[in-house]
Amino acid sequence: MVSLAAPVAALPSPPASSAANPGIIANISRKRKHVDDDDDGPEPSASSQAVKKARVSFDPAIEVHVLEDYDEKGLDLIREEVRRAIDNHIAGDSTDYDQIKALFASRPSAPEAPSTKLLKKYVVALIGSVNMLGKNCSGLVHAVLDCSWLARDESFKRLYITFLGSLMSAYGGYTSQVLQMLLGADFSQVPPPSIRHSLDPPITRPQLRERVHEAINRILKLIPSASGVLSPILAAQFPHETENARVHMNYIQNLLEITRYAPELTGATLALIMTRLVRIDVQIQVDMEDMDDLEETLIQEAVEQKEETIFGEDEDDLSDEDSDDESVTNSSLDEPTDQKRLKKLRESVIKMDSIIDVLFEYYHQKFVKSNIVDATELFELFMSQFVATLVPTYRSRHTQFLIFHFAQTKSQFTDRFAGVCASLTFDPSRPHISRLAASAYLASFIARGAHVGTALTRDVFDVLGRNMDNYRFDREAACKGPDLRRHASFYAMMQAQIYIFCFRWRDLIVSDEDDEEIDELILEGRELTWLPGIKETMTRNIYSKLNPLKICSPAIVGQFARIAHALRFLYVIPLVETNKKLRLNKSVASSVLHGGLQERETALSGKLGEDMLQLDAYFPFDPYNLPKSKRWMEGDYREWSGVPGMEPEIEDDSDTDSQAEESDVEEPYEEGTATEMSG
């Protein structure tokens, strides 16, 4: 009995011409009887052959195997095909060249798409011919760069990244295009894993994201100069502030991932994120203009919907997110204008909250796990961002709380931040707007920082008084009255000092008693012992010709007057009442001060009448209410605490109106327009 079955692997390869007609190869096991196997015997007749064929029996168990690689060309043949296609393309015949381009342009999930195994051979061939891919072959290069490579199998991914490195090594001009491809849609919104060839193994979104970073990492290691090209591309492709939270979160998380394997890009990347975050922050304030109590409404709505996920319960379930977004957009067309604005603002608040929370987590890991040298270097990076971005902006509402939190993690950071703010405040070479912002940051940090100690509070209070003394000594003789345009820095320092006093007056008392004993002294009406010189310094500056209590925010001045009187520190209420009758000259409206804010003017800075000639009650570290990220503020924030026994302030509109009628004030003072200190 002789078996006619042959293993599939032993079959000879079909000629190239038959490659287009794959068939089904059957392994057939069959039995036959031997008639005469002697090769020397006579030739069998036709009738005997028929008899022999008729006596052949077949095994009923037939195994059928489809050879999926049967129609694929050999690697050597493909190498020659690619070489000749390029040569012919350069010579003017692009037929084969265009066919190769079409292979890479095919959508992996399309029925006619080439298999990943076949496409790998072309990638190998292109790696071997990379020196031929000059400017005459840019079309083929772009086809390869635009191909769907992320969701293919592991070996294709490795070959593709190798091709990218070889291409950039041979032609540096492709560096920008390769990096732009890697940072394209994949960086802001990873494509669905379902877009893959049917023969490739399943893959998840996190794996797709890892592949992008693996490619960038290998390229940066192979070509260090690519870092200089990558940084501006990261900035150029950053999502616009109107993009939704999902897009921003994807992009920012990818940026933070880059800093982990490319430390040389850390400074520029974090500065980029800070700058764009401030834009979103300021835009929220602009959108809130003329809408009363809107922020509180938005925060409440965000709290109610904080269980909504930014990425969804399962990232692999987002393949239809584009159609969902479109349906939401279409349905929103029928909404009233006010509802659209509210919806847009609510989404912006949620986006802001999500981004800041991610940044808090990132920096927390850096500060906690880093040694003091690395943490100090990171904090200095914070300071450079603060000076370059936050101080000139002046109106950001939430971004600065990153610095507020981490500046209180170590005492040296607390001192450093206060020192930077003080240096900017006292620097005469700085623009007025920067000095005003710096003084507001300094006052707000000292007043609100729960970890700001007594010693630093006293030092800042003292240095503010001494600088005001020096300023007054140099300019009081030529002063004709309160003038914000001419003496903005002096008034900013005074407002900072009285704001600090309202929050930290206990730290300015010289006493061995605890807080409860001090409270008893106050309730008994006994005198307190204050730090030497502070009462005298404040008296000289307050009652000078510069008259700072007329220019400082009426809300802050009113609160200071009441607290100072209750503590028997200073009695300035008569001066405050007199100032209400003093008219400020509108002809000296501060173009230096308010002109610098014109681009970023918000509902917080829009002022009418005499308010234009007075300082804003703006302090950057006012209460932080974003629902998700506010958890980072726990233990950092000093809440308002009044003076024991001091009567609560009661607004009397009739008294205010009568005072306005009796006075010669052109615009009546409305305390409700300023920020409440007890907020």
What is the general shape? elongated
Q: Look at the helices and sheets and give the structural class.
A: mainly alpha
Strand content: under 5%
Query: Can you give the helix content as a percent range?
Result: 40-55%
Spatial strand order of the main sheet: 1-4
> What low-confidence regions span 5 or more consecutive residues with pLDDT below 50?
1-60, 62-71, 307-333, 587-606, 652-676
The whole-number mean of residue pLDDT values reads 78
For the termini, the CA-CA separation is 100 Å
What kind of sheet is the major sheet?
2 strands, antiparallel
CA-atom Rg in angstroms: 38 Å
**What's the number of helices?**
28
Key descriptive features of the protein:
mainly alpha, 28 helices, elongated, 1% strand, 679 residues, disordered N terminus, two-stranded antiparallel ribbon, two-stranded antiparallel sheet, 4 strands
Description:
By secondary structure, the chain is an all-alpha fold. Among the domains are: 8-65, no CATH class; 430-673, no CATH class. Helices cover 54% and strands 1% of the residues. The chain is built from 28 helices and 4 strands. It has helices spanning 46-54, 75-91, 95-105, 116-128, 138-145, 154-170, 175-182, 185-188, 205-222, 226-236, 245-261, 266-287, 294-304, 321-332, 337-369, 372-393, 401-406, 411-426, 432-448, 454-475, 488-504, 515-523, 534-542, 548-551, 554-566, 573-579, 591-595, 653-662, and strands at 25-27, 30-31, 57-58, 63-65. The strands form 2 sheets. Strands 1-4 form a two-stranded antiparallel sheet. A two-stranded antiparallel sheet has the order 2-3. Helix 7 (175-182) crosses helix 10 (226-236) and helix 19 runs parallel beside helix 21 (488-504). The longest helix has 33 residues, at 337-369. The termini are far apart. The model is unreliable at 1-60, 62-71, 307-333, 587-606 and 652-676 (pLDDT under 50).
